[in-house]
């Protein structure tokens, strides 16, 4: 009997949080601020600055930070005109957010969610203590990603939405983590309704450790791929069974469909296999996780923030991916068709003398 191959995830894919509006759900005192400051903040793009709206700045000043925090007035409004004043690649953390009543306020928030955050390159975290009396029920119920602490409000949210989304298998996992507690004492979970997965606790994962993931009625353990999995059942990135080459290929293609860029990446993946650049069970390319390579070359570079502005600076890993592509061109004579390379920087390697 062939053991199913284990899925492999990039941390960037799990934390695909930039330039979006994210709701952080949980009761007061359950670790939302601590999870943000100690774990999320060091892993998010904050090149434009970190801005905080809170009634108690001491919650942030008492924690050692590598980022300078800019405190905005408590009456700061989450409307396009105000957020557009923030520098590109800024991160804004709004504690105890409540949307004022009125159709115009709801329309302004929806404009921020659907347009402003992405086009102005702002990451906005809205901390919400509950679904009641916050005027945010529809927005939270339809959000594709939710960060949460293990509290009564989070439980009520999951209990209502999980069955409707076909994800009832989240609920036993939530209760198990809630009963035993996390590490640190306040676990910070993530629900991705698009990919139908729940990360039990991001905190140890962001610190180089392992955590549980609930997906497709199965409990996985996510851990660094170079480390031995702490369990032998249903692991992610570890030693959970080899499977056949055909099964591995089919599984990776299935996993790619969970991503918005997955169909484009699948075409490139098949092309690289056809040209024997990668083998049937390859999950790295010159030391870079294959899924990171596929993600980068299959997505467009972010546009400049405005007229006369320079494009966003590439990350070190993205520069390394481009060097790998140049090596494939020079050493192996590979010429990937431009139609397989939506990313202009990657396409330029093969078609503009990159």
Structure, described:
This protein has 354 residues and is of the alpha/beta class. The protein folds into 2 domains: 11-222, Rossmann fold (3-Layer(aba) Sandwich), CATH 3.40.50; 245-351, no CATH class. It is built from 14 helices and 13 strands. Strands 3-2-4-5-1-6-7-8-9-10-11 form an 11-stranded mixed beta sheet. Strands 12-13 form a two-stranded antiparallel ribbon. The longest helix is centred in the first third of the chain and has 17 residues, at 103-119. It starts with 10 loop residues before the first helix and ends with a helix.
**What's the alpha carbon Rg, rounded to whole Å?**
21 Å
Main sheet: which strands, in order across?
3-2-4-5-1-6-7-8-9-10-11
CATH architecture of the largest domain: 3-Layer(aba) Sandwich
Text of the CATH class of the largest domain: Alpha Beta
Query: How many distinct beta strands?
Result: 13
What is the domain total for the residues?
Answer: 2
Residue-averaged pLDDT: 78
CATH topology of the largest domain: Rossmann fold
From the structure provided, what is the oligomeric state, counting identical versus distinct chains? single chain
Low-confidence stretches: 1-5, 232-244
**What is the element string, with H for helices and E for strands?**
HEHEHEHEHEHEHHEEHEEEHHEEHHH
Major sheet characteristics: 11 strands, mixed
Which class of secondary structure composition applies to the elements?
alpha/beta
Helix percent reads 25-40%
Number of helices: 14
Distance between the termini: 47 Å
**Hey, roughly how much beta strand do the residues contain?**
15-25%
Principal-axes geometry comes out as globular
């Amino acid at each position: 009997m062939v053991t199913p191959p284990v899925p492999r995830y990039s941390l960037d894919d799990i934390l695909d949080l930039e330039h979006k509006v994210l709701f952080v759900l949980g009761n007061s005192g359950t670790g939302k601020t601590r999870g943000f400051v100690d774990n999320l903040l060091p892993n998010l793009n904050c090149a434009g600055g970190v801005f905080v709206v809170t009634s108690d700045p001491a919650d942030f000043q008492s924690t050692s930070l590598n980022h300078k925090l800019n405190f905005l007035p408590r009456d700061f409004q989450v409307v396009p005109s105000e957020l557009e004043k923030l520098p590109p690649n800024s991160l804004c953390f709004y504690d105890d957010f409540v949307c004022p009543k009125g159709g115009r306020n709801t329309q302004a928030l929806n404009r921020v969610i659907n347009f402003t955050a992405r086009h102005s390159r702002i990451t906005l975290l809205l901390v919400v203590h509950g679904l009641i009396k916050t005027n945010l029920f529809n927005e939270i119920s339809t959000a594709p990603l939710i960060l949460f602490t293990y509290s009564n409000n989070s439980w009520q949210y999951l209990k209502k939405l999980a069955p409707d989304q076909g994800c009832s298998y989240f609920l036993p996992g939530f209760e198990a983590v809630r009963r035993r507690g996390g590490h640190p004492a306040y676990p910070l979970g993530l629900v991705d309704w698009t990919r139908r997965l729940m990360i039990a606790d991001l905190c140890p994962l962001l610190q180089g450790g392992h955590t549980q993931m609930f997906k497709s009625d199965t409990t996985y353990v996510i851990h660094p791929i170079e480390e031995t999995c702490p369990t032998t059942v249903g692991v992610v990135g570890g030693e959970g069974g080899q499977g056949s080459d055909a099964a591995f290929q089919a599984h990776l293609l299935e996993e790619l469909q969970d991503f918005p860029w997955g169909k484009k990446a699948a075409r490139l993946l098949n092309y690289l296999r056809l040209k024997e650049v990668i083998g049937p069970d390859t999950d790295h390319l010159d030391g870079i996780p294959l899924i990171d390579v596929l993600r980068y070359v299959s997505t467009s570079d972010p546009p400049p923030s405005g007229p006369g502005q320079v494009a966003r600076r590439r990350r070190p890993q993205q520069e390394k991916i481009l060097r790998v592509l140049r090596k494939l061109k020079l050493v192996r004579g590979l010429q990937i068709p431009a139609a397989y390379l939506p990313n202009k920087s990657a396409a330029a390697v093969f078609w503009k003398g990159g």
